[in-house]
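Worked example 2:
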Amino acid sequence: MLLSLVRSQSQRTIIWIALGIVLLCNMTFFSKLFHYSMSEHNYFLAFSSPFILLLLCICILNFLLLITYKTLFKIMLVFLIFSGALSGYFMDTFGTIIDTNMYTNAMQTDSTEVLDLLTPKLFLYLGCAALLSFWLLFKTPISFSSYGREVVQKAFVAVFSLALIAGLYMSISKSYSSFFRNHHELKMYLNPYYPIASFAKFAYAKIQPKPEFMAIATDATRTSSEKKKLVVFILGETARAQNFSLSGYEVQTNPLLSNRNDIVFLKNFASCGTATAVSVPCMFSKFGRTNWSEEKESYENVVDVLAKTGVRIIWRDNNSGGDKAIAKRMNDVVKYGGSGFDDVLLSDFQTNLDKSYEDTFVVLHQEGSHGPTYFKRYPDSFKKFSPTCDTQELDKCSHEQIVNSYNNTILYTDYIINQTINLLKANEDKYETTLIYISDHGESLGENGVYLHGLPYMIAPEAQKHVPAIFYFGDKLKAERERLSLKASERFSHDNLFHTLLGRFAVNTTEYKPELDILR
């Protein structure tokens, strides 16, 4: 039986494709595997794992190709080749893990972000996949047995591969169990296993009926004071706290804000997620990180609550990913789409305020420090730190160049925040003013071979989760500033934003939890 399977052209093709994916698209997995196993002197595991991975890949391909036949068989193999190459590229280049959140990010990515990710290295990966696919489709005649026999063969090989894996695992289970328990993130780098499993989970979630839209805080009331409140929330993008000189960073990236005595920098602030698609809807929701899931997007958020209690909402968005549906029920929304620099967010600030005098909540959503094209996020006049990385091919730049480019984006954000504060000061005779700046998530700049963001929260480095948070209070709120400065070292997170905004506008509702209000 086994010899006849080896002679089967379809099985030989599957084995060759599996071997190619294992050897060429799992470099990150093998790099981490050998690093950990050699440092722990676990040599047998280091050299047996590739064989087990090959068996796993053969098993997966046979299961996926179980009901394919002839032309459909080749088309499915081409799809698997391209998905393996694409996943391998992002894992090898950025240290990215292809999980369900990454598919969510991909679905929400616009053309600008896609163009920023196109590199010669990506085309090399896809070009190799295309050549292999061309060879498979047009240069490799594959003879097939009857449809029923093909199904039986694939099922047998898949089960036989699983049995071999189980047998090998049982014989050295003690060594394998402890190793992968200590390095559980390794399984997330298995290609094509983890990307395919994540896609199946993502697709299953997408085909489920959408939950009914739910209103929250239906009991919300608010008493407006004679002097109206003006709160500006600057929603940062990809800023990590450790590169803010306000947090103790040795490079002066906040020259303007460092000279102010009317702001408070919160030193221990955690994000809800490691990607915009998670963090933005989560931070505006009532649920908090531990209770957050994509289904919770069907609930109203804090912007909805403020709006229905009579607060005027102004949303200005320069983020290429948009507002993540937070402001879709608001009227005064302008989206610039990341086509220019972030100072466009302030272009109509005063004009809008002059239109009416009422309690107002302004959201300014930055393009901020979005990578990998950091050099596109700031004008030339803010190119203070050099040499810089002026390409999206981060692997062509030194760590110093990448950090310098990133620091220039923080320098520009420092300017944007300072300019916004100056605009608030110009309106303090009319309004009780507050500014809040919080980034959606952080960023990795090549530390330990990891770039950008989006790693699963449980294994993401602090650089992707520790975000800057800055509060400014007008002169009439000096007591609030002094009270918050005493809590500057306490731990806060995106979970606090919902309740802090309700408290700032004095909204009365059972949804409000004063213990989560940063300003209480």
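The radius of gyration is 27 Å. The CA atoms of residues 74 and 519 lie 61 Å apart.
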